[in-house]
From TrEMBL:
It comes from Escherichia coli. InterPro entries: D-isomer_DH_CS, D-isomer_DH_NAD-bd, Erythronate-4-P_DHase_dimer, NAD(P)-bd_dom_sf, PdxB_dimer_sf. Keywords: NAD, Oxidoreductase. This is Erythronate-4-phosphate dehydrogenase. Residues 145-225 form the Erythronate-4-phosphate dehydrogenase dimerisation domain. Pfam families: 2-Hacid_dh_C, DUF3410. GO terms for biological process: 'de novo' pyridoxal 5'-phosphate biosynthetic process; pyridoxine biosynthetic process. GO terms for molecular function: 4-phosphoerythronate dehydrogenase activity; NAD binding; protein dimerization activity.
C-alpha cells in the first residue's frame, strides 16, 4: 500500500505494510477511512493481512471499524489463529458483530478519544482557530482548563517492571471498565450509543505525575505518555 506521507516527501523511516505485518508484535490502526483512491483504507486489514500476522501478535483498531475486515477477522479467530485483538471500533456501528465481540480480548464502544484532555484539546483548537480568524488571536494553556486529577503525584523507586507499569496504568484508567458494560448490552438496540453518550470522565496518562529515582524508568514512562521526571535518590 502507498503511503501519503512518503509520497509527499515527508521525512521518516517509512516501511511497507507487508513488511510491518511480517515482523510486528503489535499492529495498531489510527487512520481515517478512505473507501477508494490511492490511499484506500477500507479493509486495510483484510483476510490476507490478518492471516499474515505472526502467532501471538496483538491487533488493535482504534480508528474506524471498516479499516479491519470484521468478517475475515472473526473467521480467522474461529479457525484458531493465535492473535490478541483489541477493538474500539466496529463495522456497522452502532450495530456490531456480537460473535466477534465474544472472540476479542478487549472490546469498547468507540471511546478511545473520549478523554477529558482530548475534549479540552479539541475545544482549545477550535477557539484558537476562531480567534485567529476574527483577528484577535489568543492561545490557551490546556492545563488551565483541566481539574486536578484523582492521583496528582506518585513516587516510583527503582526500575520499571511490567507489574508496576500495570498499576500505574490502572491508577489512571482500567480498560475493563469499558469492556464489561459493552459485553453486557451487546446486541440490544440503542445501547451502544447510550454507552457513548453517558460516558464517565476519563483522564490521560499525562495527568499522572511520576517522580522516578531511576532514569530509565522516567524515560520509558515519558515515551509512553506519562508526566514523569527523574530525581535521583539522595
Amino acid at each position: 500500500m502507498r503511503s501519503a506521507r512518503a509520497d509527499r516527501g515527508d521525512e521518516g523511516d517509512f516501511r511497507s505494510l507487508d513488511e510491518l505485518v511480517q515482523h510486528a508484535d503489535i499492529l495498531t490502526f489510527h487512520t481515517p477511512l478512505f473507501k477508494d483512491g490511492p490511499y484506500k483504507t477500507l479493509h486495510l486489514a483484510d483476510e490476507k493481512l490478518i492471516r499474515s500476522l505472526k502467532p501471538g501478535a496483538i491487533l488493535i483498531n482504534a480508528c474506524r471499524g471498516a479499516v479491519v475486515d470484521n468478517t475475515a477477522l472473526l473467521t480467522s479467530l474461529n479457525e484458531g489463529q493465535k492473535l490478541s485483538v483489541v477493538l474500539d471500533v466496529w463495522e456497522g456501528e452502532p450495530e456490531l458483530n456480537v460473535e466477534l465481540l465474544k472472540k476479542v480480548d478487549i472490546g469498547t464502544p468507540h471511546i478511545a478519544g473520549y478523554t477529558l484532555e482530548g475534549k479540552a484539546r479539541g475545544t482549545t483548537q477550535v477557539f484558537e482557530a476562531y480567534s485567529k480568524f476574527i483577528g484577535h488571536e489568543q492561545h490557551v494553556a490546556l492545563d488551565t482548563l483541566l481539574p486536578a486529577p484523582e492521583f496528582g503525584r506518585i513516587t516510583l523507586h527503582g526500575p520499571l517492571d511490567q507489574p508496576t507499569l500495570k498499576r500505574l496504568v490502572h491508577l489512571v484508567y482500567d480498560v475493563r471498565r469499558d469492556d464489561a458494560p459493552l459485553r453486557k448490552v451487546a446486541g440490544i438496540p440503542g445501547e451502544f450509543d447510550k454507552l457513548r453518550k453517558n460516558y464517565l470522565e476519563r483522564r490521560e496518562w499525562s495527568s499522572l505525575y511520576v517522580i522516578c529515582d531511576d532514569a530509565s524508568a522516567a524515560s520509558l514512562l515519558c515515551k509512553l505518555g506519562f508526566n514523569a521526571v527523574h530525581h535521583p535518590a539522595r
